[in-house]
Automatic annotation (TrEMBL):
Alphabetical list of Pfam families matching this protein: YfiO
Disordered, as annotated region: 269-288, 296-315
Bias-annotated ranges (Basic residues): 296-306
Domain of life: Bacteria
Keywords: Cell outer membrane, Membrane, Signal
Originating species: Candidatus Polarisedimenticola svalbardensis
Record-linked NCBIfam families: OM_YfiO
UniProt name for this protein: Outer membrane protein assembly factor BamD
Residue ranges annotated for the Outer membrane lipoprotein BamD-like domain, each copy included: 43-216
InterPro entries (UniProt xref): BamD, BamD-like, TPR-like_helical_dom_sf
Length: 315
């Protein structure tokens, strides 16, 4: 009777151990299933998921997906598009740092896959990365020149591509920025009454950027700078061309007034009065500075004399 009881107890203990072991296994499986839903996605699924994130502008998630693909060994066929998608996900963040980071990614794509159908797009984007960092003609334009080189490379290397036409449009816009940059510098010189440097800037736009759209504005600025620089003969040529070619322009009315002899005479009289006032202010400042210096010298001499008088005489 006692032996039977012990046997039953032993059987129950073995059953309990078995159940605990099974429960442990079940718990482990449950823990695994609670991990990330995309933990076991294939390369293609990771790429598709990344593209979906990119389309919905969830850029951080998109980059995470593409980075995981780069770490797998079965992504050779998808590697070009993964690289390009990574560049896009970086580019569309839009901030300056992202644009700086995206450009070499596009360039790397062109270097590695120059024959790929998306290579023209990548080269175009490399130029756009630079253009978007400039933003306004008033800023330094060194990156604009560099971007034009990238965009010209699209036209040279991929002349039959649809992106060649897009590149040309962007080149035209970039050149307009360069022209406007020179024009704004010329306007700055005009405000400073530095008419000859202003005239050089306006003339540079006229000669080097024939596609500049605001020709009436440019002719007026150049003509006015020449007139105020005492070159009435050449200035009147540009002002007359403005009146003839753009009679309805607001600048044409201003040009007509500027060409009037009385108007030019008035401008010159005002300029002479302005220069006389500036000279008077300069002379006043010089006299005040000389007076302060003389006062300081007298004060120093008086202090030095007093110090010598107070020193005991040497025997």
């Amino acid at each position: 009777m006692k032996i039977g009881t012990i046997g039953r107890v032993g059987a129950l203990m073995l059953a309990a151990v078995f159940l605990v072991t099974m429960a442990g296994c079940g718990g482990s499986k449950k823990k695994d299933s609670s991990g990330p839903a995309d933990a076991y996605l294939t390369t293609e699924e990771l790429y598709d998921q990344g593209r979906e994130y990119l389309a919905s502008h969830e850029l951080r998630k998109a980059r995470q997906m593409f980075e995981r693909i780069n770490m797998t060994e079965d992504a050779r066929d998808l590697e070009p598009m993964v690289r390009l998608s990574m560049a896009d996900a970086t580019f569309y963040a839009g901030d300056s740092l992202s644009l700086i980071d995206a450009r070499p990614l596009y360039d790397d794509f062109v270097i590695l896959y120059g024959d790929h159908e998306r290579a023209p797009y990548a080269k175009l984007q490399a130029g756009v990365c630079l253009l978007q960092q400039v933003n306004h003609p008033s800023r330094d334009q060194s990156m604009t020149y560099e971007s034009i080189e990238d965009l010209n490379a699209v036209i040279r290397r991929f002349p039959g591509s649809d992106y060649a036409g897009v590149a040309q449009i962007k080149i035209d816009n970039a050149r307009n920025n360069l022209a406007e940059h020179d024009y704004l510098i010329g306007k700055f010189y005009m405000k400073k009454k530095a008419y000859q440097p202003a005239e050089k800037r306006f003339r540079n736009v006229l000669l080097n950027y024939p596609e500049y759209p605001d020709r009436d504005k440019l002719y007026f600025a150049l003509g006015k700078a020449l007139v105020l620089a005492d070159n009435m003969d050449e200035g009147s040529i540009y002002l007359g061309k403005l009146i003839e070619s753009w009679p309805n322009s607001a600048y044409a009315k201003d040009a007509t007034k500027l060409l009037a002899k009385d108007s030019v005479a008035d401008i010159r009289k005002k300029e002479e009065r302005r220069r006389a006032k500036e000279q008077a202010r300069t002379d006043k400042r010089i006299k005040e500075a000389e007076a302060r210096m003389m006062k300081a010298r007298k004060k120093f001499a008086k202090k030095n004399k007093k110090k010598k008088d107070e020193e005991p005489e040497k025997e």
